[in-house]
């Protein structure tokens, strides 16, 4: 009888456990030695990590460049926020909301499920055409989705309040919740990567003609991976709204897309471990840069204020990695491939 | 088993295949030869679903397949290799094979692929990426990957290309073993006439998109049109 998991998925679980330990060590270090303000930084890093892992599912396994993830994150964040915010608060924050959106409230779990369902349905609808497009078209359409959704956020102020804050969202999530979600995301992404479907998608990424000749239904593989990735983005959006208590349209746009894509590129598109390492390294780098931007005194020397340095860093990371290490830090490798390094240097991961 | 009936294919004004018919019967090795530009690879692309004929029918066991997409054709039992290798470069040899095996039309012979891996000498390189293999190993991997679909018809597009004499002879022995181990029809294209004549039980010759002759090799090679267009009067095979 076939087991529930194939041998590569079992190996993936070992790798997931190693990454989970890394995440828990970081959280533990914060609990033991961290400052209170660092909880927010850590939380944001973990939300970003869920997004980058979601990017790896479609963009990494399929080798497509897509830029609509901030839109799906925003859709879920707003859906969860509108559902969970008490009606009394919405009477103030969304007085002109249509369809009775300001007249009800839901339990956070129900709100999260509704947000996941809405995002998944929109993911499936957009997937109907995304899965039938080829590389450049996928990129262009993903940008169009991002712009369309952002425009709706900005112009339907009666529902989304545009660039103004939608406030009063109950802050029901903490660091523990997002840590659990990150670990779940890592496990889910590794199981997907090593599944038959993940393998087929990676084969398509290498050679679509060859994959079709081997029986791979390219449209189906893309469709499932696309919808799955939107659910990761939705999870991140819900976690974002449930922690901050206030959201606006502005964060769900190009700057955020640029940041998360840089994280995946640095780590390596084809590896979940790469997504984790890329996110952690850029998050750490950005904190150092933000400190440098303020013009600190280093060794008695007062540095000038260097606003905009973080954008410069992301640009340098993308250009540098693309030029000198196009497969990112990890390439095809996962963490267990490094820990249990094979004897032959030519051997690669699955 | 596989019947090609009056198949034509044109690209704009160019007639790549013109009213070609032939039959590949169960478990035979059927050679498809012709000079460059004869339409051989176009024919393989038509049979495997990568091209749709402008006219004619292609039948696999009486079922029309000419309008099916390639992945459906593959799952129906027609597997192919490519003239230019199309391996999955970022997957190991083992996982290259698994991609096909997950779509196997018939999983009743679970040891087939392990046996083929041993026979073709790929056991020691299962964990390597295709780029780390020799060219001969890459060619063998493409054949095993196609075999993993458990095909009823195997289309081999120049499997001996780039191989030396010893490797070609080994390929010949391996094809006979393969057909014995997994009874299926094999449609074989190659430029190595010695190889194809020794391997094929029946032969179809194409030239300029048209069928010149089809039948037993000894009969086809005596066909005047075949000699004039392809073999040449001084050619011996």
UniProtKB/TrEMBL annotation, chain A:
For this protein, the record's InterPro entries field holds: ABC_transp_permease (IPR001851), LivM-like (IPR043428)
> Which keywords fit this entry according to its UniProt record?
Cell membrane, Membrane, Transmembrane, Transmembrane helix
The UniProt transmembrane annotation reads 12-33, 39-58, 70-89, 109-129, 136-154, 174-192, 224-246, 252-269, 274-292, 307-324
Q: What topology does it adopt in the membrane?
A: Multi-pass membrane protein
Q: Does the keyword RNA-binding apply?
A: no
Q: Where in the cell is it found?
A: Cell membrane
**Name of the featured protein:** Branched-chain amino acid ABC transporter permease
Taxonomic source organism: Albidovulum litorale
Q: What is the lineage of its organism?
A: Bacteria, Pseudomonadati, Pseudomonadota, Alphaproteobacteria, Rhodobacterales
TrEMBL record, chain B:
Any one GO MF term held by the record is: ATP binding
Q: Which UniProt keywords apply?
A: ATP-binding, Nucleotide-binding, Transport
What InterPro entries is this protein classified in?
AAA+_ATPase, ABC_AA/LPS_Transport, ABC_transporter-like_ATP-bd, BCA_ABC_TP_C, P-loop_NTPase
Gene3D superfamilies per the UniProt record, alphabetical: P-loop containing nucleotide triphosphate hydrolases
> Which residue ranges does the record assign to the ABC transporter domain?
2-233
Q: Does the keyword Transport apply?
A: yes
Family matches, as PANTHER family: ABC TRANSPORTER ATP-BINDING PROTEIN, CONSERVED COMPONENT OF ABC TRANSPORTER FOR NATURAL AMINO ACIDS-RELATED
- The protein here is known as ABC transporter ATP-binding protein
Q: From what organism does this protein derive?
A: Albidovulum litorale
What broad taxonomic lineage does this protein's source fall under?
A: Bacteria, Pseudomonadati, Pseudomonadota, Alphaproteobacteria, Rhodobacterales
């Amino acid at each position: 009888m076939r087991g529930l998991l194939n041998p590569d998925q079992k190996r993936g679980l070992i790798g997931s456990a190693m990454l989970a330990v890394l995440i828990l060590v970081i959280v533990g270090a914060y609990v033991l030695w961290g400052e209170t303000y660092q909880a927010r930084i850590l939380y944001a890093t973990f939300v970003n990590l869920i997004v980058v892992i979601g990017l790896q599912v479609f963009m990494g396994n399929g080798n497509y460049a897509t830029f609509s993830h901030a839109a799906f994150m925003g859709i879920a964040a707003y859906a969860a926020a509108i559902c969970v915010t008490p009606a009394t608060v919405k009477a103030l924050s969304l007085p002109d909301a249509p369809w009775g959106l300001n007249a009800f409230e839901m339990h956070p779990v129900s709100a999260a499920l509704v947000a996941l369902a809405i995002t998944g349905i929109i993911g499936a609808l957009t997937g109907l055409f995304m899965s039938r497009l080829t590389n450049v078209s996928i990129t262009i359409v993903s940008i169009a989705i991002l712009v369309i959704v952002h425009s709706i956020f900005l112009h339907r102020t009666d529902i989304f309040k545009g660039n103004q804050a939608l406030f009063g969202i109950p802050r029901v999530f903490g660091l523990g919740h997002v840590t659990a979600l990150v670990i779940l995301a890592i496990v889910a992404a590794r199981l997907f990567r090593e599944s038959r479907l993940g393998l087929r998608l990676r084969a398509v990424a290498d050679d679509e003609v060859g994959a079709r000749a081997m029986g791979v239904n390219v449209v189906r593989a893309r469709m499932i991976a696309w919808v799955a990735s939107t659910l990761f983005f939705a999870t991140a959006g819900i976690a974002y709204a449930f922690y901050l208590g206030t959201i606006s349209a502005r964060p769900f746009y190009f700057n955020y897309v640029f940041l998360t894509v840089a994280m995946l590129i640095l780590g390596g598109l084809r590896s979940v471990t790469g997504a984790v390492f890329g996110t952690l390294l850029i998050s750490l780098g950005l904190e150092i840069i933000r400190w440098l931007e303020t013009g600190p005194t280093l060794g008695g020397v007062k540095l000038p204020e260097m606003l905009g340095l973080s954008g410069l860093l992301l640009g340098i990371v993308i250009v540098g990695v693309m030029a000198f290490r196009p497969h990112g830090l990890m390439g095809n490798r996962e963490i267990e491939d490094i820990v249990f390094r094979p004897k032959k240097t030519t051997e690669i991961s699955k | 088993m596989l019947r090609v009936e009056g198949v034509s294919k044109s690209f704009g004004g160019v007639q790549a295949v013109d009213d070609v018919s032939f039959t590949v019967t169960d478990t035979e090795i059927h050679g498809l030869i012709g000079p460059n530009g004869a339409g051989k690879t176009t024919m393989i692309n038509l049979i495997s679903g990568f091209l749709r004929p402008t006219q004619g029918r292609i039948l696999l066991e009486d079922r029309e397949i000419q309008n099916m997409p390639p992945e459906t054709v593959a799952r129906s039992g027609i597997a192919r290799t490519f003239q230019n290798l199309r391996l999955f470069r970022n997957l190991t040899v083992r996982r290259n094979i698994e991609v096909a095996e997950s779509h196997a039309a018939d999983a009743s012979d679970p040891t087939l692929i392990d046996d083929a891996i041993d026979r073709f000498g790929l056991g020691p390189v299962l964990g390597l990426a295709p780029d780390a293999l020799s060219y001969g190993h890459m060619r063998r991997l493409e054949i095993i990957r196609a075999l993993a679909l458990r095909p009823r018809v195997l289309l081999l597009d120049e499997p001996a290309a780039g191989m030396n004499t010893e490797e070609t002879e080994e390929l010949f022995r391996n094809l006979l073993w393969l057909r014995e181990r997994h009874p299926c029809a094999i449609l074989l294209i190659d430029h190595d006439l010695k190889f194809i004549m020794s391997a094929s039980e029946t032969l179809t010759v194409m030239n300029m998109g048209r069928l010149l002759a089809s039948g037993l090799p000894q009969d086809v090679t005596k066909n005047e049109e075949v000699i004039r267009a392809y073999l040449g009067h001084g050619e011996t095979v």
